[in-house]
Amino acid sequence: MTTAGQPRGAHSSQPTSDLYDVINRRRDVRSEFTGEEIPPEVLRRVLGAAHSAPSVGLSQPWDFVLVRDEATRRSFREHVLAERSVFAAELSGERAETFSKIKVEGIVESSIGITVTYDPERGSPDVLGRHAIADAGLYSVCLAIQNLWLSATAEGLGVGWVSFYREDFLRRLLDIPSGVRPVAWLCLGTVKELAQEPDLERHGWRSRLQLDDVVHDGKYRHDFTR
Ligand SMILES: Cc1cc2nc3c(=O)[nH]c(=O)nc-3n(C[C@H](O)[C@H](O)[C@H](O)COP(=O)(O)O)c2cc1C
């Protein structure tokens, strides 16, 4: 219901400001985790939000592997830090210096790890809408992740997406079948706060673009900054 008591629906002229608020408050979290346990009903709601995402051909090609075990998390963290070094070795000068201050994960400090996977076989061979764009399955998994991220924000939790890993390593670590892709390791947890600006912006790695930089009217403009 809106403040005026009108139901919000497809035809309502009232914006759902609470949704926009959640969208604007959402942050990628690395340093702010406090590591307390998430109440089971809250975790269930967050996973339920992820599982409510749209998916190509209603294939729902995602799975969520909940990782609580500390040894498993430590092992993954070691791998991620090694991959961080691989990336760091590709940088030089100011980029290397700036990156050296950036934390890229909160695997052990978060309350729980959630690996989100993509199974291209789910619902196949006749996945409605995927015959021309194979990646549509992967897009569906990313929508589930975004639902999870926003729901967690609404619950006062933080999420950090970790992609500094080799898929084979994570497959082996979590016993994921060979045809299934681990799309993300999400650090989910209680937080002391959500930062106002992205970490990468705060550290001077990169700034957010203006909306008008990325809106093209009619045809793709080729004169904008990347
Ligand atoms: C596909 C994807 C992979 C990401 N991988 C990492 C990562 O490995 N480590 C990290 O610290 N942040 C990672 N991020 C978070 C981004 O750096 C972050 O979303 C971006 O800087 C904007 O900040 P914000 O999410 O707080 O708005 C990832 C985000 C996405 C969408």
UniProtKB/TrEMBL annotation:
Keyword Flavoprotein among record annotations: yes
Cross-referenced Pfam families: Nitroreductase (PF00881)
Keywords carried by this UniProt record: Flavoprotein, FMN, Oxidoreductase
The protein's name in its UniProt record: 5,6-dimethylbenzimidazole synthase
InterPro entries given in the database record: BluB, Nitroreductase, Nitroreductase-like, Nitroreductase/BluB
EC class name: oxidoreductase
Gene source species: Actinopolyspora biskrensis
Domain Nitroreductase: 23-189
Domain of life (superkingdom): Bacteria
Enzyme Commission number: 1.13.11.79
Residue ranges that the Swiss-Prot or TrEMBL entry lists as coiled coil: none
Cross-referenced Gene3D superfamilies: NADH Oxidase
Molecular-function GO terms, alphabetical: 5,6-dimethylbenzimidazole synthase activity
